[in-house]
């Protein structure tokens, strides 16, 4: 046995020499998935999947229908300015995510992962549904974009708890040697949300006339959020919290101020986590969300062809995600994350040069390649970030680092890409931006320790 003081409390918890169980007050609590039934694991996977699915379905629809949304809320602006304003609203909603990270991290580490996730999905789905009900600019004038901004701020706040909470939930339930593949469910769920959003955008673009899309067609996808959110909340409320958190709760070992403990005692892994997320933040939005707009507005591909290429790339991305999770379990998180960064440094700009050819087959192959490269980062990052922090502050550490970085670089990626093209006059600007993000993540991950083979910190 080994003794370890809990952060922020001064209490000492007795830990086993192996990660098979937590032993507190003479009782054993399964850790790293030991003793958890397969049925429970399936329910945990489903509960973690659906919340992120709903969240990223919304982001996909907003990004893929950006041109139509710009017409509905900024009809008096020219096309490029309308896009900038629409993506600006997209970015502003991200600025509240660090605040959400603090709040949801505190709730998750103090009250429990399940409670935080059950509440966040309810707020998220309600806000997404509300977008479908906002009248356009021609009906209520300036109040239309103001209401859209307010709803997206609520979305940003609620979304701050989803990705981090689901990742922590899965990692704390997963078997010790399979944390990577289980945590890969989280980015897979985001990609599935994007995939459904892309499919619906494609269906609408080929089924409705431009007038129908501008007047009511764009609202239809947002209406789906309410039933999906209610289903997700029902699944989550029927689960127990993770064994690791229940053990801490029983011994009153939960930190009273987890965010304070995070900045005071775990600032080094926090800085590493922030740097590691940069490639994910920029890459995810540029490669999977901004790309249809880039292909149609910059390259000149038709809207239907742009959506089709992105849809195929997303389908392959989901498969690659799980392969990456398996690879990170076998070869280690650090090695896989470093490989991702190096590939983006070397291949991003050449990939954007090939996109500029306008050849559909070439574009499709390039998108599949970029998506596969991105999965090396995205499929490994959830388990890597969760393993960086001890149980007492795991939700806070993940939520703060992930949401702070996404606020600075993820939410602004669509706006920055559009602005950089306008300022530089170069269609390759998003590629250079993505390459720079890869350099930052490469440095950060190089400074990290390997986490895949070690037991979860208590």
From TrEMBL:
Chief location of this protein within or outside the cell: membrane
Coiled-coil regions, chain positions: none
GO CC, alphabetical: plasma membrane
GO molecular function: symporter activity
Domain of life: Bacteria
Keyword terms, alphabetized: Cell membrane, Membrane, Symport, Transmembrane, Transmembrane helix, Transport
Topological relation to the membrane, as annotated: Multi-pass membrane protein
Domain spans labelled Major facilitator superfamily (MFS) profile: 44-453
Compartment annotation: Cell membrane
Matching InterPro entries: H+-coupled_symporters (IPR051084), MFS_dom (IPR020846), MFS_sugar_transport-like (IPR005828), MFS_trans_sf (IPR036259), Sugar_transporter_CS (IPR005829)
Pfam families, alphabetized: Sugar_tr
Keyword Iron part of the UniProt annotation: no
Transmembrane segments: 56-74, 80-104, 116-134, 140-160, 181-204, 216-235, 270-291, 303-324, 336-354, 360-377, 398-420, 432-448
Keyword Secreted recorded: no
Homology family: Belongs to the major facilitator superfamily. Metabolite:H+ Symporter (MHS) family (TC 2.A.1.6) family.
Function: May be a proton symporter involved in the uptake of osmolytes such as proline and glycine betaine.
The protein's name: Putative proline/betaine transporter
Organism: Arthrobacter livingstonensis
């Amino acid at each position: 046995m080994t003794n370890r003081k809990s952060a922020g409390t001064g209490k000492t918890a007795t830990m086993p020499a192996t990660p098979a169980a937590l032993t507190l007050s003479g009782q054993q609590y399964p850790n790293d998935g030991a003793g958890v039934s397969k049925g429970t694991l399936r329910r945990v996977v489903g509960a973690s999947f659906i919340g992120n699915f709903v969240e990223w379905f919304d982001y996909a629809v907003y990004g893929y229908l950006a041109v139509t949304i710009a017409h509905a809320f900024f009809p008096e602006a020219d096309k490029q300015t309308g896009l900038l304003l629409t993506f600006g609203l997209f970015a502003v909603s991200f600025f509240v995510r660090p605040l959400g990270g603090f709040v949801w991290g505190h709730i998750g580490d103090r009250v429990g992962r399940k409670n935080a996730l059950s509440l966040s999905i309810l707020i998220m789905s309600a806000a997404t549904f509300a977008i479908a009900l906002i009248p356009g600019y021609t009906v209520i004038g300036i109040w239309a974009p103001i209401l859209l901004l307010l709803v997206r701020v609520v979305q940003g706040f609620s979304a701050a708890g989803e990705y981090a909470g689901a990742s922590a939930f899965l990692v704390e339930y997963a078997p010790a040697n399979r944390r990577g593949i289980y945590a890969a469910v989280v980015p897979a769920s985001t990609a599935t949300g994007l995939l459904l959003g892309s499919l619906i955008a494609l269906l609408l673009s080929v089924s409705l006339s431009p007038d129908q899309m501008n007047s009511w067609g764009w609202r239809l996808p947002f209406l789906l959020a309410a039933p999906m959110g209610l289903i997700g909340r029902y699944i989550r409320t029927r689960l127990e919290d993770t064994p690791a958190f229940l053990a801490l709760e029983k011994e009153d070992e939960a930190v009273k101020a987890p965010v304070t403990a995070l900045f005071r005692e775990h600032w080094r892994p926090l800085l590493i986590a922030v740097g590691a997320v940069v490639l994910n933040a920029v890459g995810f939005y540029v490669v999977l969300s901004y790309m249809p707009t880039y292909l149609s507005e910059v390259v000149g591909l038709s809207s239907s062809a742009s959506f089709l290429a992105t849809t195929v790339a997303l389908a392959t991305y989901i498969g690659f995600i799980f392969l990456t999770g398996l690879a990170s379990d076998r070869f280690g998180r650090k090695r896989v994350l470093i490989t991702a960064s190096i590939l983006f440094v070397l291949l991003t700009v050449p990939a954007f040069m090939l996109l500029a050819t306008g050849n559909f087959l070439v574009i499709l192959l390039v998108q599949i390649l970029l998506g596969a490269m991105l999965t090396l980062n995205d499929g490994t990052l959830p388990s890597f970030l969760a393993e960086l922090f001890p149980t007492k502050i795991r939700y806070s550490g993940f939520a703060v680092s992930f949401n702070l970085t996404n606020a600075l670089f993820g939410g602004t990626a669509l706006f920055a890409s559009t602005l950089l093209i306008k300022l530089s006059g170069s269609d390759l600007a998003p590629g250079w931006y993505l390459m720079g993000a890869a350099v930052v993540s490469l440095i950060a991950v190089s400074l990290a320790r390997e986490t895949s083979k070690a037991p979860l910190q208590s």
